[in-house]
Amino acid sequence: MSAMKEFSKGLWKENPVLVLMLGMCPTLAVTSSATNGLGMGVATLCVLMCSNAVISAIRGIVPKKIRIPVYIVVIATFVTIVDFVMQAYAPTALYEALGIFIPLIVVNCIVLGRAEAFASKNGIGKSVLDGLGMGLGFTLSLVVLGGTREFLAGGSLFQVKMVPGWTTDFMLMTSAPGAFIILGLFLAGMNQLNIRKAKREGKTYTPPGLDCRQCNICDLGGE
Question: Which of 126, 137, 187 is nearest to 12 (CA)?
């Protein structure tokens, strides 16, 4: 697979949110605004790239039976660094809004899944591109979802009022049910686009399912 394909697959074909259905907890919890989505996405992107690079570099010296604890230690190290950097330099309102979800990147199935499914089996260059593509795909999904919810809630985008006459907020969009509704509409739209594309190519499109096809992390005794 070429470098461009390694990078671009996470943006659409294997988008972690809209296709692989990973990282649903932060996706639904922090996307009440585009700013929150951007902050969470960038934090995850940095951890993905750095952890993928290190795990790829040490893959040859880590015994298979203890690889998962080692991966978690590597990921936790970069999550701690990102947490400290955000605490020092990110706007206080953003850091407080993301709250516990920054430390919880340690157990985010996107990060751990890419470490096991890709970085542990490929070179550093490809692993960095994989982390960058998946991170950008995750970030874009969160920003679009957060921006849509923010606009529908109060007519604003990135905390800038786009519709001055919008004086009454639509509170459903800032709540958990609103997140499920908007994400469901996004998934339906993406599936429809994929169905049309498959028909044009004379193929049958099967929507992605909630299973473990994309991650072997539970196979602790696997080869």
Answer: 137
Whole-model pTM over 0.85? yes
Q: Quick one: 74 exposed, middle or buried, by C-beta within 10 A (0-12, 13-18, 19+)? A: buried
| Amino acid at position 205, single letter | Y
pLDDT tens digits, one per residue of 119-135: 999 999 999 999 999 99
Say which residue the tokens 């400290």 belong to. 84
Neighbour tally for 222: CB within 10 Å: 9
Of 128, 56, 49, the residue nearest 82 (C-alpha): 49
> What is the per-residue pLDDT across 141-194, written as a single tens digit (0 to 9) for each?
999 999 999 999 999 999 899 998 888 888 889 888 999 999 999 988 888 888
Classify 150 as helix, strand or coil. helix
User: Torsion angle of alpha carbons 115, 139, 82, 9, nearest 10°?
Assistant: 30
